[in-house]
Each structure stands twice: as C-alpha cells, then as structure tokens.
Design brief:
Elements lengths: L10 H4 L5 H11 L10 H9 L7 H15 L1 H18 L1 H12 L6 H7 L11 H12 L7 E4 L5 E2 L3 E8 L4 E7 L3 H9 L2 H11 L5 H14 L3 H15 L5 E2 L12 E5 L6 H6 L3 H22 L1 E3 L7 E3 L5 E3 L5 E3 L2 H15 L3 H11 L10 H11 L9 E2 L5 H10 L17 H13 L3 E2 L1 H9 L19
Parallel strand pairs: 5-9
Antiparallel strand pairs: 1-3, 2-3, 3-4, 4-6, 7-10, 8-9, 11-12
Amino acid sequence: MPEDELPEHLRPVVGEGTSERARRAIDRVTGGTLERLSTGRLGRAAKLGKLAWSGGRAVLTEKAKAAVGGGGSSSGQALAAEMLKTFSEMRGISMKLGQMLSYLDDGLPPEAQRVLAVLQRDVQPMPWPKMQPVLETGLGRPQDEVFAEVEPEPIAAASIGQVHRGRLRDGTEVAIKLQYPGMEQAMKADLKNAKVLNIIQRGLSFSTDTEAITAELEQRFLDECDYAKEANYQLAYKRRFEGHPSIVIPDVFEDLSSERVLITRFERGKGYYEWLADASPESREHAGRTFYRFYLGAFYMDGLFNCDPHPGNYLFREDGRIVFLDYGCCRRFEPERLEQWVAFCQVVCQDDGDGIDRMGRALGFLKESGTYDKQAFHELIRYLYTPYLADAPFRFKDYRPQETFRRMFTDNKNLFKLDMPPDTVFLNRINFGLVSLLAEMDAVINVRSTVDAYFEGVDPDWPDDPFRGQRYAA
C-alpha cells in the first residue's frame, strides 16, 4: 500500500519508510468493521500470550530492540504490525498499553511507534447497527427524538468506544461518544488477568504493595467505562478553564449523557501530528506551555489530574487555542495531599536531603521500617525533578524518558525497597507520556518559575484568571 493510499490524516502519523507488511497491517486495522469484542478472560489472555509478554513490558521493548538490531527497521515494524493487530482486536486495557507504547520513548524504535500510533483513534469501528442500541438505551428514547442527524460512520474509534458526529434538533453540532458493547466485561476480564496487571504495574510503578496498586488500577480503568463520571470530570475542567486564553474544554450535554453515552459539543481543529508537521517554533513553545498548564498546573493548583496524555486527545484550532478531549482517566487529589506534593517538590529543589527523606516517608515512597540507599534515593528523585532544579528555560528534548525508565527500573538500587503510593500510581504517566510529547514538540519552559507561580495559585499566562491567587478552586 503506497503512502499516498493512506487516509490523509494518517500520513503525518505513519510517515515515510513504513514497510509493506506494516502498511498491510494498518490497512486491515483501519478498514472494515469490528463485529464483536472478545470478553472472555481466557481468550483475551491467549491473545496477549502470543506476544510473549509474560515478563512484562520490558520484554516487549527488548524484543523490539533486538528485532531492529538484527534485521533493520522492517523487523521492528513487523513486530509493531503484530502488536497492532492484537491490540486493535482486544481494545480496552490492552489497547491502552499499545497507545502508551506509541508515544513513550522508552525503547521501541521510532518506526514501530509510528505504526502503533494508529491505535490512538483509527482502529476498525463497530458497525452502526451494533452501536445505535447503545445510543438509544443511554438516551432512554429513539434517537430521532433528540437528533436531527447522526452520521453512521464514526469520526474516531479507539480503546473504549467510538465517536460519531451528530446534530441536535436545534442545529447544534455534537460529538457522540458511544461505548463498545461488552467493553466493561472485557475490562474486568483483563483486570483479573495477572499477566496484564504485571505489565501495567511494571510500566507505571516500582511498588511492592501489589494489592493497593491493583486496587488503584482497577478503580481508574473501570472509571473509564462510566461516561457519567467522565462527564463530571469534564465539567469540572470546563468550570476551571472557562475563559482561558489557550485551553478549550468542550461543552458537555449532561442531560443527554449517561453511563455508556457522552454527548459534547463538536469541535474542529488539526490533529496532533498534522499540527506538528508544520508547527513553527513559536507555536511549539506556546503548545508546550499550554500542555504543562493543563496537566501539571491543574494538578498543583486545582487537584485535578488527567492521566491520559496521548496524541489522539488534542485538536489545534486556527486561533492558536488547543482543545483537550477525553476525561475518562481522571482523578481528584485532596488539598492536604497536594500540600505534601508541593512540600516534596520544594525540598527537592532546595537539595534538602533530610527533607526529601521526611516528605518521601509522608508521601509513602519510604516504608516506616527497613533500610534503603539514601544517596541513591536522593539522586533518583533529583533526576526525576530535573526540569524543576534551575530557574532557567528547560529544553525537554534533552530529558529522555528512556533514561528516566532506566534510572527508575534497570539501575535503581532501591527497586524492591520503595513503594509507589497507590493514589499517585498514574503520575508516572506524566513522567513518560507528557514528557515524551513535550520532547517531541521541542518545548522549552522555565519549569521552576512556572511551578513556583502554580504554588501561589497563579497561572503566568492567564492574568484574568477569576480564581487567581486561589488554590483548589476547581
């Protein structure tokens, strides 16, 4: 399949040099429809077993590197093609792993990551006759009573559901997000699969408190199956960022939404890769600061945390503002907990070893009893906070997630002596996911001065913030 036969929006995603095998896999995954979703635990486990993932995510990345080293980029793409097929068929948690691997710079070769990027929104959709009952059940009435039009062909299909464009009877254009039939059963099947949980846990934490981590993972992933919860999170972000000069949160039609149906205002804009292909340095810098405000600013100032920073969740508008989509994987942090994180950040920036130990224990990284290598712990934490350490512009391209992964796992002398606090397990997705995106767009941010402002409740780029100087206003 020649490059010019790819759908136009996929060309900047996949790029040049993609092997014929990978292109055929992309064609299969993006063409036709998915007639049914596998929901059985044994069947889903068997599909993952074919990828030889028994050793966790590290096995996959090593296999990918070995393939590239042994046979060039086409071997890496062959592995990616195999992964693409399996993840797209399974959806749910398994596909989310594939999405993460598509943008995390932790060992997968770039050509393999480009192939997996198709998972972000372009997999086979389910046919409309299977999705229409989901819509009408969620509405509690026939669709014609609410919509003047619903397009049967979706505009996006991803891990949990697919999105259709529609028009309400008053003419308002809307995005209709529908959950795949059987998705909750599939998610629960994956969560009972020890192999899947092992992969996820290795990819998100170095915790030895497996029971607590598993409970956190289950809660966050199952929350994604409840669109009513997603609507509530999106409304919270909408209230907080209303009027922001750079951030757009789509309106939510709460009265039309339900557990399996989410109706929001339809927004237009370029996709991430389409924007990135010709983005100016000024546009990249602006986008980097905007991303940082949405993810880290919302955390430090408002206790709102969006755990899913992947490239399929953004639209870049002509006016320079960025639309942020998808609030399925979110959580709140209480003010007392946030104050502990702020205090931890401050002692790290002050290079206060005793403070790092004290706050590390308060946060739950250090056990009440037991020994650990203090110097190694201090060095790891300071490395993780590298962007914070100097009051100067920081270029994220120089801060490789691959190196972060190595220090946290491969070379961590305290690997089995530390815990990852369960309520912060998904924060590691920022260490890898957001940093990968900021590096890819070559963002340069004075992180130290920015977060110092956040700690005071101030967004440096929003002087008219109605909550300026207030913390936890969301």
